[in-house]
Specification:
By secondary structure, the protein is an alpha+beta fold. Helix content is 53%, strand content 18%.
Length: 413
């Protein structure tokens, strides 16, 4: 027999259940329930991390990591790009000018955001060139009034490559007070698709010079920036803006798409709370298990007390049992959760082929696979929370055991 005695007795009680099948069964149910809860939490949060990463990638495919807006009488955008060359982490910079417009092609009409771009510099800040389904970005030649539409926008207008659309924006009349619509005809030379409705259904691209002529603007609204690390872009964008002076206004992707990522964070939080209830149920089972063990071992506790074991020692015996269940269940859940999260791309296709169904139907969803991105921080807090719950579950039964009176327990023995 090794020391300390509470640890030795606690381990013996944990593994010897020859005459207590029901207690042993509840113990295994508690352990497996804890493992299942931890596995589900790690896997689901990893999948949600994957969807968040996929959403961030798709949002940044056309939206730059940050934008710098010039004052009304700003300087040359070419000089500004030259000043930013060599800035740490900056991958590319390109001018832009956006106009809210109404596009029409008889008999259809739809609202859109017409963005003026430089076709030569745009690939440095977005992946629009890889998203082209028809035509090329280089077809936007200045002065030719050509336009590239999102796939859903083209569908709404019922147009294809070679058709013409009318772009209408509000303008000022001769006296400067009346609002008179300004119309211009553009030829569709390309269609893109990135898989996000806010891009595919509302965005139209034209050459920067054509956008300036449409809006009577002498200069673009600002620059769109792309950095090597999208997560570090907000900080780097502010440093870049500070190097240009206080007159510029900077916005980053976290501000432009705040609603999307806030929704994902809320979903992750609620999903974590809901799945943590599985762990809580397992913890309640541990309470029931230890209470039954204490009732079953009242005579043993009394004998140990008469042999000199202190109430603190009895407390340690039953806390050892609960902690052991918590360790094993949490460790098993972590191993299974990590294994499942790292192999979602293998497990999901196997389940789909076995049961003949699609989790993400390609006819409905643009994301047809189940992405997964395992974060060490998630694994650590899940394991810590699960172990903390199981530790708390051992307190009441252990205190009850420590308060057992030897004389009362041995009265009828």
């Amino acid at each position: 027999m090794f020391q300390p005695l509470p640890l030795f007795v606690g381990l013996r009680y944990s593994w010897t259940r020859e005459n207590s099948f029901f207690v042993s069964f509840i113990t295994w149910v508690s352990l497996l329930g804890l493992a299942l809860g931890v596995t589900a939490l790690i896997t689901i949060l990893s999948v949600m991390n994957g969807f968040e990463s996929e959403l961030r990638t798709r949002l940044s495919s056309l939206s730059a990591h940050a934008t710098i807006e010039f004052p009304p009488q700003g300087g040359s955008w070419r000089q500004t790009i030259d000043r930013l060359k060599g800035f740490k982490g900056l991958r590319g910079a390109a001018p832009f000018l956006e106009v809210d417009a109404m596009l029409s092609h008889t008999p259809s009409m739809s609202g859109a955001v017409v963005r003026g771009i430089d076709p030569d510099l745009e690939p440095g800040v977005s992946s629009i060139a890889e998203s082209m389904r028809e035509g090329k970005l280089s077809d936007l030649i200045p002065g030719t009034n050509r336009i590239v539409l999102g796939r859903m926008l083209a569908y709404e207008l019922q147009v294809g490559v070679g058709d013409s659309v009318t772009v209408m924006i509000p303008g000022r009349g001769a006296n400067g007070s009346d609002i008179v619509p300004r119309l211009r005809e553009f030829q569709v030379v390309g269609i893109f698709e990135v898989g996000l409705q806010e891009h595919d259904a509302v965005l139209a691209l034209v050459n920067l010079q054509d956008a300036q002529g449409l809006r009577d603007a002498r200069a673009p609204a600002g620059l769109r920036l792309r950095f090597d690390d999208v997560l570090d872009a907000p900080r780097l964008a502010r440093e870049a803006a500070a190097s240009l002076g206080s007159a510029v206004v900077v916005r980053d992707w976290t501000q432009d798409n705040a609603a999307y990522f806030r929704a994902v964070r809320i979903e992750k939080s609620m999903m974590g709370i809901i799945l943590m209830l599985i762990v809580a149920v397992a913890a309640f089972n541990i309470v029931a298990t230890l209470v039954m063990v204490v009732t079953d071992k009242r005579t043993d506790i009394a004998i140990l007390r008469t042999l000199g074991l202190s109430p603190r020692g009895v407390l340690g015996i039953f806390m050892t049992q609960g902690v052991l269940i918590g360790w094993i269940g949490t460790a098993l859940g972590v191993v299974l959760g990590i294994s499942l999260a790292l192999n979602v791309d293998v497990v999901v296709p196997f389940l789909e082929s076995t049961f003949k169904f699609h989790i993400m139907d390609p006819d409905v969803y643009t994301v047809t696979g189940i992405p997964s991105e395992l974060h060490a921080v998630d694994v650590l807090w899940i394991a810590a929370a699960a172990f903390a719950l199981t530790f708390l579950a051992t307190i009441y039964p252990s205190l009850r055991a420590a308060k057992t009176a030897p004389a009362e327990a041995l009265r009828y023995e």
